[in-house]
Write a structure and sequence with these properties.
Blueprint (H helix, E strand, L loop, with lengths): L2 H45 L7 H18 L24 H13 L7 H18 L4 H16 L6 H15 L7 H21 L24 H31 L4 H23 L14 H6 L3 H21 L6 H18 L5 H17 L2 H11 L4 H21 L3 H16 L5
Length: 437
């Protein structure tokens, strides 16, 4: 074995070992988010004698979240990249991770409508970079270890190492950060790290005091085989989900562009509005504010079991607006899980109203189309949606593939909110330049 091959094998071994501490650090962060959320939303209201948080308390907590995120964004690292930019796999300086985790903790635990995937990827990147320095892996080998940390951190959050590998594979390919001819060699260490990280998640699942935030779907009705009616409804339904997700991202960019110029004012104002939306939803539907707040991954069982079309319609409206405000207002987190929850809610509503549409394939359509539209990663979206269907995964897979493809096509065909934001920034920069004499 030549020196180059030996060095790569050594990198694979380091990646397998790296998955263990990275996954444990991810569990600790998720546990911290869960514990703060429990204190704020359960312990304090109980101590005050409330059966549910008062309206002023909900609005105040979200306003406080905006202020805390603004403070964290003043630290080195500025709270990490905005979720408006999607998922980032670019390197993170070790000194920046504290502001990223603090901003994400304040956002996620206090109720902003974002997911935990972005801070976990940043955490994995930093720990991978630190590990590469410790083992003196330089150049490409060091970059591979850093990327492997991101794999390990997100592995079980989105359905295990296979989904994590597909997700980061598609993200890296779309961004052009890895040459196509080097993809297999570049991503294998991450795949190995994700596998060892998933073992850690499994091992600590029963430990008292630890909490693992994972994307899980409740038991759904068995689906024996693809029905023509389900197939016929899935295509327009996937297009509708994608259009709503893209529309919400456009709205988020408008909030970011037209809101107050000072980021701290924008964050607090967005937080107050998110809290008001949650309280308004509770007043109209008599359902808890938690249905609107947070990422939505923990509320999927309640969404799927909801039997009221009116509640589902108001949920899509309120959570969608809260999602756009959280994205555009400057909160920190990931954009995937809330979009997935909104897509699932739309399709559960469709299964209630449309003749011949079964619940299980409808849920698969919502998960696949929303994930594909928000990140433009159809392969990962189809795989994730299929695996979430449990025993019906094989039967639902063709519908999930079509929904992911339609979601991607719709998202690509519609105007890209990121392109509009870039054009707006360029126009603003040109307008601010002094005129030539």
């Amino acid at each position: 074995m030549d020196a180059r091959a030996l060095a790569y094998v050594r990198t694979l071994v380091y990646a397998a070992l790296l998955g263990i501490p990275v996954a444990f650090a991810a569990v600790l962060f998720e546990t911290m988010v869960h514990d703060v959320e429990h204190v704020v939303w359960d312990v304090v209201p109980d101590e005050l004698g409330w059966s549910e948080p008062a309206g002023w308390y909900v609005v105040g907590v979200l306003g406080l979240a905006g202020a805390l995120v603004a403070a964290a964004c003043r630290l080195p690292g500025h709270g990490g990249h905005s979720p408006l930019e999607g998922i980032s796999t670019e390197g993170v300086a070790p000194g920046d991770i504290w502001s990223i985790l603090l901003a994400a903790l304040a956002s996620l635990a206090l109720g902003a409508v974002l997911g935990p995937e972005a801070p976990l990827i940043a955490l994995g990147l930093v720990l991978g970079a630190v590990a590469s320095r410790l083992v003196r892996a330089e150049g490409t080998d060091g970059q591979l270890l850093a990327f492997a940390g991101a794999f390990a951190a997100i592995a079980t959050l989105i359905g295990g190492p296979l989904v994590a590998a597909f997700m980061l594979f598609e993200v890296a390919t779309a961004k052009g950060s890895v040459p196509p001819q080097a993809l297999g060699r570049a991503l294998l260490p991450g795949f190995v790290a994700a596998g060892s990280g998933a073992l850690i998640f499994t091992g600590v699942a029963g430990w008292p005091g630890l909490h693992q935030a994972s994307l899980k779907m409740p038991s759904l009705p068995a689906y024996e085989t693809v029905q023509i009616s389900d197939l016929a409804w899935s295509l327009p339904l996937a297009a509708a989900v994608a259009a709503v997700v893209v529309g919400l991202r456009h709205l988020a960019h408008e909030v970011n562009a037209r809101g107050p110029r000072r980021p701290e004012i924008k964050l607090v104002a967005a937080g107050l509005l998110v809290g008001a939306l949650a309280v308004g939803f509770r007043e109209v539907t008599d359902e808890p504010v938690e249905r609107v707040l947070f990422s939505g991954q923990g509320a999927l069982p309640e969404i799927v079991a909801e039997g009221s079309a009116g509640v589902l319609a108001f949920l899509v409206l309120a959570k969608g607006l809260a999602y756009a405000l959280s994205l555009g207002g400057g909160f920190r987190g990931g954009p995937v899980f809330p979009a997935l929850a909104i897509g699932v809610a739309m399709c559960v509503l469709a299964a209630d109203l449309l003749p011949g549409l079964a619940l299980t394939p409808a849920v698969a359509v919502g998960a696949a189309a929303a994930t594909s539209a928000v990140l433009r990663i159809p392969f990962t979206a189809a795989l994730l949606a299929s695996l979430l269907m449990g025993p019906s995964a094989t039967e639902v897979a063709p519908i999930a593939v079509l929904a992911a493809a339609v979601g991607w096509v719709a998202a690509v065909a519609l105007p890209n909110p990121e392109d509009r934001a870039v054009k707006r920034e360029a126009a603003g920069a040109a307008a601010s330049e002094p005129a030539a004499p």
